[in-house]
Amino acid sequence: MARDAAGEQPRPLWRNRNFTVFLGVQTLSVAGDSFSILAMPLLVLHATGSVVQMGLLTGLAGAASIFAGIFAGVLADRVNRRALLIACDVVRALVYALVPLVWLLSPRVWLLYVVVPIGAALGMVFQVTYVTVVPGLVDEGQIMKANSRLYGTYSIANITGPVLAGLVSAMYGPSAAIAADAGSFAVSAAGLCFVRPRSRSALAAGEAPPPVPRAGWKDVLVGARFLWRHPALRSLTLLLSFLTFLTLGLNDLIIFHLKHDLGQPDSAAGYVLASAAVGSMAAAVLAGLARGFLGFGACWIGSYALCGVAISFIGLSANVPTMAVPATVFLFCRGIAGICSMSLRQEVTPDRLLGRVTSAFWTIHAALGPIGAALLTWGAARYGVAVVCLAAGITCLVTALCATLTPIRHPRPELLPVLEGPSASRLPGNID
Question: What domains does the chain contain, in order, with CATH numbers?
Answer without folding.
Answer: 13-200+219-426 (1.20.1250.20)
